[in-house]
Structure formats: C-alpha cells, structure tokens
Design brief:
single chain, 239 residues, alpha/beta, 8-stranded parallel β-barrel, two-stranded antiparallel ribbon, 11 helices
Length: 239
C-alpha cells in the first residue's frame, strides 16, 4: 500500500516544519513526514524550508549565520516555531517514515550520524535537489537511503535525464514532481513510474494534493507527499 507523507508536516504555510505540525500529521494518520533541514553556524540541524526566516516570521535572519543559542534567545525555538531534526526523532512515533530533504549541502555529513543514533536509517529517506550532497550521505553510511528530487531543472530534458541520474547515483528512490503528469501524458507518466518500480527504485510524488489524481496513480508509486493530508489519506484508505 502506498505510504502518505505529510509535506512539512501538516502542509506548506503557517506552522510548516514545526514540531507540532510534524506530530499532528502522524496523529491524523500519515505514515510519516517530509521535512527540510539547514545547518546553523554552530552545527545544529534546524527544520525549515527557506534559507532565511523572512517568509515565516518576517525576520531577516539566515539560518546559516546564527547559532541555535541565538535562535533560542530570539524565542524562535518552540514546538510551534523552529525545531531540530534531533527533536523530531525524539518526539515522532518510532515507526514514522521521515523524508529528510537536505536544503543545505553543509548539513549532508551531519544528518546520517544523528539518524543512526536513533537507529532510524531504515525508515529515513535523505533527499535533495542538490544531488551531489547525497554522495556525502552515502559516504557516511552505504545503507543510507538516498532520494533524487527532480524539479525545474529537468524541464525540457526528457526521460533521458532521469536515466542518466539513475545510472550515476543508483538511488533508493526518485522524487518526481506532480507536474510530470502535465509534461507527459498520464499513460506515459504511469509507464515511467511502473518501469522505475520494476527496477526496484521507489517512487515518491510531490506535492500531490489532488485526490482525483491520487486515486489514479496510487498503485504506481510508493510515497505520496502532500499538503492535503486528510483528502489523500481518504483516497489511500486504511493505515
């Protein structure tokens, strides 16, 4: 059965990537969550999507330029605001799947030791648009599951681009944008998903919020990453 992951917890927007949002996603029935990680200047792994805090909190602070202590002093560390990757593993259920999207390449060599300390490598997927940093993840532990995130850079390149990436990185999973069904026909896209799975490459679709589309593709992929958690869980059915 396809697994449903809450995008940034309960979805993009207010409270995204907060500990409360991540926990709520699993409480509502998500199999796990997708979250984003940046490294502070003192080596803390902070969960947030953007390089700065302007969009979320209206503050001109770049994560890489401050320390955890400074963030805490500014009252930005809390269950409703910023949290750490360590805190997520401490508080989320022990069977929750966690898709750690590496936004900051400098964080790549730090994430695996932390996840390994929770004995959680088997339920963690390390993904990134910055594919080269995933080699650092694999270097940290050959058993680490790496997922290649595909985005705008693939536009106009066709399926050959995906094949080249697979040959070079040998990923655990391919994280394809839902727009693939607009760029190619539904039939061609479904054939791609099926061919990847036949080669034992897991397929994750992001960000799939359309329940009608989810109904059509749910049997051809392994993970649905969504902002529309309740609707997609209803389509998937069961737990």
């Amino acid at each position: 059965m396809v697994k449903v992951l809450g995008h940034r917890g309960m979805g993009k927007g207010e409270g995204e990537n907060s500990l409360l949002s991540l926990i709520r996603a699993t409480q509502f029935g998500a199999d796990g969550v997708e979250t984003d990680v940046w490294l502070t200047k003192d080596g803390s792994l902070i969960l947030t999507h953007d390089e700065d805090l302007k969009r979320l909190f209206g503050i001109e602070i770049k994560i890489k330029e401050v320390s955890y202590k400074e963030l805490k002093k500014a009252k930005l560390i809390s269950d409703e605001k910023l949290t750490t990757l360590e805190k997520a593993y401490l508080e989320l259920p022990n069977d929750a799947i966690i898709n750690v999207e590496i936004k900051d390449p400098d964080a790549a060599k730090f994430v695996v030791p932390l996840v390994r300390s929770f004995n959680a490598l088997d339920r963690t997927i390390f993904s990134s648009f910055i594919h080269e940093c995933l080699l650092d993840v694999r270097k940290s532990d050959p058993k680490a599951k790496i997922g290649l995130l595909i985005g705008e850079e693939a536009e106009g390149k066709g399926l050959e681009y995906i094949e080249e990436l697979i040959a070079h990185y040998n990923p655990y999973s391919m994280h394809l944008p839902v727009q693939i069904f607009e760029n190619f026909s539904l039939e061609a896209s479904m054939d791609l998903l099926k061919s990847l799975r036949e080669r034992n490459i897991k397929v994750a679709l992001w960000t799939l919020n359309d329940s009608e589309l989810a109904m059509k593709v749910r049997t051809c992929c392994d993970y649905l990453i969504t902002d529309n958690l309740m609707a997609i869980l209803a389509v998937r059915g069961g737990r």
